[in-house]
Amino acid sequence: MGCVFEIMNFYSCFDGNGKIIARCQSHQEIEVLRRMGRPIAEVKKMKNEEAVVCSLMSSPSDFDMDY
């Protein structure tokens, strides 16, 4: 029986200057950050290969210290 690996969706959040300020797994997490006052100007879905690295290396919340 083979191993099944499911790629999770991850999103990168950017401020108005194009600097990445957070990585999230859901739109709900993005909305929580917005309600907390984070200046999220743009959200981009990560490419599958970026999402795999993110899920293997750490949690998105490890990147966003305020969440």
> In terms of structural class, how would the helical and strand content be classed?
alpha+beta
**Poorly predicted parts:** none
SSE pattern, N- to C-terminal: EEHEHH
Rg on CA atoms, Å: 13 Å
Roughly what fraction of the amino acids lie in strands? 15-25%
Principal-axis shape equals: flat
The overall pLDDT average reads 76
Main pleated-sheet profile: 3 strands, antiparallel
As a percent range, the share of helical residues equals: 25-40%
Oligomer: single chain
Number of helices: 3
Intertermini distance: 39 Å
How would you write the strand order of the largest sheet?
Answer: 2-1-3
State the total count of DSSP E strands: 3
Describe this structure in words.
The protein is built from 3 helices and 3 strands; from the N terminus they run E-E-H-E-H-H. The protein has 67 residues and is α+β, with helices and mostly antiparallel strands. A 3-stranded antiparallel beta sheet has the order 2-1-3. A hairpin with a 5-residue loop joins strand 1 (11-14) and strand 2 (20-24). The chain is flat and about 30 Å long. It starts with 10 loop residues before the first strand and ends with a helix.
Keywords:
about 70 residues, three-stranded antiparallel β-sheet, about 20% strand, 3 helices, alpha+beta, single chain, about 35% helix
Brief overview:
The protein is flat.
Secondary structure blueprint with pairings:
Layout: E1 11-14, E2 20-24, H1 27-35, E3 42-45, H2 48-57, H3 60-63
Antiparallel strand pairs: 1-2, 1-3
